[in-house]
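So, can you check this one?
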Amino acid sequence: MNTCNKCKMVKYCNAACKKKHRKKHKKACERRVAELHDEKLFKVPPPKEDCPICFLRMPSLYTGKKYKACCGKEICSGCIYTVKLRAKDLIGLCPFCRVPGPSTDDELIERTKSRVNIGDSRGMYNMGFYYTQGQHGLPQDRTKTLELWRQAGELGCTDAYHNLGHAYYTSDGVERDVKMARYYWELAAIDGDTDSRHCLGNLEINAFNVDRAMKHYMISVSDGSKESLNSIQRLHSSGFVTKDDYSKALIAYESYLVEIKSKQRDEAAAYGDDYKYY
């Protein structure tokens, strides 16, 4: 109970001793807390789940995968497109559970609500998105959107935290607050959200912290962010990073492409923009 509850570095004999030492300890404590935060923030995030059908690494681009409310699975666009070709009479057949896609807005909303009711974070995220757009027969309700996204983020949906950060950054439904935007983007980035990681890199560039920006960009490039690769290219062209840094980014991005590429994903991408995966 008498250990510093922030940095965990110093132990005291009693509460009075702890209180007496607080002023002397404050700077060292804040420095250590910042170090611990950065260790967590810049740690390479855990790998995402593979596609449950083809078992290949899931693309980070949002059009490279689709969520199915019937079974709560995210499936790569290549597998979805392949089933679509083989079952022309059942367009939208789920490759995982084989259930046909919803034929009406009411059916889609009911399926999504059933996912929300069992605590499915992706279902909550999608329901929030429907409210923000006023889609599928739901009223436009930004307050409901933000509420659902906060719940979804707490349950592990990084896209929900990313969108909350974007809302605070652009004052979309809430008062503009860059600190809150950073807070939600950091939560999402720690759990592996590529777009949030890129946004954090942009915040650091705006503050002229090139080294910290590069750390963010390199992590997001390794997870398929072409935007971060382009940012590193611009930094290289402007003389802020070395040729070696840019080469490392290119190698990381190429390695990512090797892991996600497949014949059926290429065929799907050729079919239309909704199936592009990089």
Observations:
- Residues 192-261 form one domain.
